[in-house]
Amino acid sequence: MKILTTFLFNRFKTSNPKTKIDSLNVQSSWRVAWGKVDSILEDVTWQDNRLAIIAPEGRAITISPSQQFVVIGDLWLSNKVELLPKLGLEPSNFSGNDSEIIALAWEKWEFECLHLLRGMFAFTVWDRDKQILYCIRDCSGARTLYYTTNKDICWISPQLRTLAPYRSGDIDLVALRDYLATAFVPGERTLWQDIKEVGPGTVIQFPEAKITSYWQLQENTQAADKPLAWHGEKLRYLLDKVVREYLPPQQPVGVFLSGGLDSSSITALAAKFHNEQVHSYSIYFGDKSPNELEFSSLVANHCQTKHHILEISFEDMWERLPETMAYLDNPIGDPLTVPNLLLARLAKADVEVILNGEGGDPCFGGPKNQPMLINSLYGAVVNQQDALQAYLNSFKKCAAFLPQLLKPEVWNAVETQPSVFSAELNNVDANYLNRLMAINIKFKGANHILTKVNNLTQAEGLLGLSPLFDKRIVELSMTIPPIHKLSVAQEKAVLKQAVADLLPEAIINRPKSGMMVPVQIGFRKYWQQEARNLLLNRQAEISPYLDKNLISKWLEFRGDTWRRYGIKLWLLVSLEVWLQVNK
Predict the structure, then answer these.
(1) Cβ distance 124 to 135 under 8 Å?
(2) Across 551-564, average pLDDT
(3) Is 242 found in the same domain as 319?
(4) Which residues contact 226 (CB under 8 A, 6 or more apart)?
(5) In a shared domain, residues 81 and 118
(6) pLDDT of residue 381
(7) Nearest CA-CA partner of 480 in 236, 201, 194, 120
(8) What stretches of 37-97 show up as alpha helix (H) in DSSP?
(9) With 369 labelled, which of 31, 99, 460, 464 sits at a CA distance of 20 to 30 A?
(10) Cβ atoms within 10 A of the Cβ of 23, count?
(11) Are 96 and 182 part of one and the same domain?
(12) In this structure, what CATH number is given to the domain that contains residue 191?
């Protein structure tokens, strides 16, 4: 059964467009202070010598049985059932939360317990005896953790916005450059100069601020002589196991369903293994815009899910952008941000857990890698600068325009600053496709895809899960020979092989198209004056950094042969709105 839902908001007005965004109230998350905590004037929830914890009402602070370790964090462990017997506990009798499992595991194994954890987590552990603070993030980067670089007190929180009172207003210009090139901020930088992000699979240890990787993604090609079917069977076995673990017991589950291979695969596996109702959710932007409803509806009918279709108007896209940016940490210039929030809002009426198909392209060779492979094949990539520029241009954002878009003094400050992508991109010991995939997993996955989906589902009280970004799936992807992931003839061949029996042939063999958000039409017909007043205003937050002549040209769509200005304008509008709501 298909359920069509339309969100109705205030009538869209273009006669008196706003240039400034109203302030938004977003609840702060927990935060930990390390250093001279006696000077803190806030209401401290728990304090011990050089450590203080400030936690919202209801947030659990867990102390280990020996009283030595104190744990607080955002945690979801997929392997609780496996961990509890190792801790001497019977799963059927355990009624504690995941934080208590971490406290018990740390007391038994300390740092080594990190190798046993699977799931999504960002947490801190305070060792009261040794006076050491550990800040830990999961391997895929599904949860986030940020820290300030203040000398007297270092603040740590899973939410960038929570650290606003402890930072300056200075922009990190390299992070700004990278955002304009890719539509997200990659690596450990944030858009604020004095706040950094803990990397995926990383521990930061205070007082030394020592950074240690407890897990690293590495190429590990195996069984190169085995056929595609063999690797597909191996992947399918693991997919079955992971999706089973992710399904919530005795309650319905939802799936974001675009109709592409990745989300369709997760939908089919959920429907196969779940004993409760499976809800699927799709979006479209009205009858005059391209959509994938034909394919998402085909999958929903095939898998017998309760299917919901959300129509999103141009009014919705513009009016809900400030709220969306307030829920994000760093800015993300992806047009799917607002749809992700609205779809989560719709799903919250039916489910508490929502699955998605994110991770298929980074792990199994999506078609966006093909231009880079062709570039490499024909020898255009001959040195570091060429390889890096080709990679940045493949995002089709603003990389090629940075010398004109950034003001001269800003461009001079960042032009020669190194890129976080260079080391992986130029790792000659790894296959070229695997290098591209590793970059996408480490950076686009952790700093864009996962943080976008998880922040916006959490904003609506949902647990958003990405099975294809599971640590075990990611590790397996790096064992599969590249020829079985992406070749001239077929992309994601091994994933298609793995799920061929679960989905209609039309889904298995359809070309990748990507979710089509009509921002080009949006700026031409609906948002142009709004965007002009927002971006070209003298008081705009981007004014000190960007040259508005090029932006003005984009707003007039002069020379837009490839119809790319809309996506660039959305990236800029998202940045301006993010700066305003986070100021």
Answers:
(1) yes
(2) 90
(3) yes
(4) none
(5) yes
(6) 45
(7) 236
(8) 80-86
(9) 464
(10) 10
(11) yes
(12) 3.60.20.10
Is 415 contained in some domain? no
Specify whether 259 is located in the same domain as 345: yes
Which strands, in side-by-side order, build the sheet including 62-63?
A: 62-63, 69-77, 119-127, 132-137, 202-206, 210-213
Decide: 467 and 239 in contact? Cβ < 8 Å: yes
Residues 6+ apart with CB under 8 A from 570: 333, 335, 519, 522, 523
**Rounded CA separation 49/567 (Å):** 50
CA distances for 493 relative to 122, 165, 363, angstroms: 33, 49, 12
On whether residue 201 sits in a domain, the answer given is: yes
Judge contact between 529 and 12, C-beta under 8 A. Answer: no
The whole-angstrom separation of Cα 451 and Cα 440 is 14
> Which helix (DSSP H) or strand (DSSP E) does residue 123 occupy?
strand 119-127
Identify the CA nearest to 176 among candidates 460, 413, 437: 413
Domain of 53? Answer: 31-213
Select from 508, 542, 560 the last residue of a domain.
508
Query: Is residue 7 in some structural domain?
Result: no
Structure token pair of residue 380: 């255009």
Q: Kindly report the pTM of this predicted structure.
A: 0.93
DSSP secondary structure letters along 184-229? S--TTB-SBTTEEEPPTTEEEEETTTEEEES---------TTS-HH
Asked whether the predicted pLDDT for residue 195 surpasses 50, the reply is: yes
Residues 209, 326, single domain; the answer is: no
Calpha distance 401→393 (Å, rounded):
10
- 206-211, long-range: CB < 8 A, 24+ apart: 206/34, 206/132, 206/133, 206/135, 206/154, 207/34, 207/50, 207/131, 207/132, 207/133, 209/154
d(CA 206, CA 184): 28
pLDDT band with cut points at 50, 70 and 90 for residue 289: confident
* Residue 311, phi then psi, degrees to nearest 5: -85, 130
Tell how far CA 512 is from the center of its chain: 20
Indicate the residue among 213, 240, 255 that finishes a domain.
213
Considering its fold, how many domains does the chain have in total?
3
pLDDT at residue 379 in the model: 53
CB count within 10 Å of CB 425 equals 20
Q: Return all residues near 279 (Cβ < 8 A) that are at least 6 apart.
A: 252, 253, 254, 255, 305, 306, 307, 308, 347, 350, 351
Q: Do residues 201 and 243 share a domain?
A: no
Tell me how crowded residue 533 is: count the other CB atoms within 10 A of its CB.
Answer: 16
Calpha distance 583→577 (Å, rounded) = 10
How much is the pLDDT for 343? 97
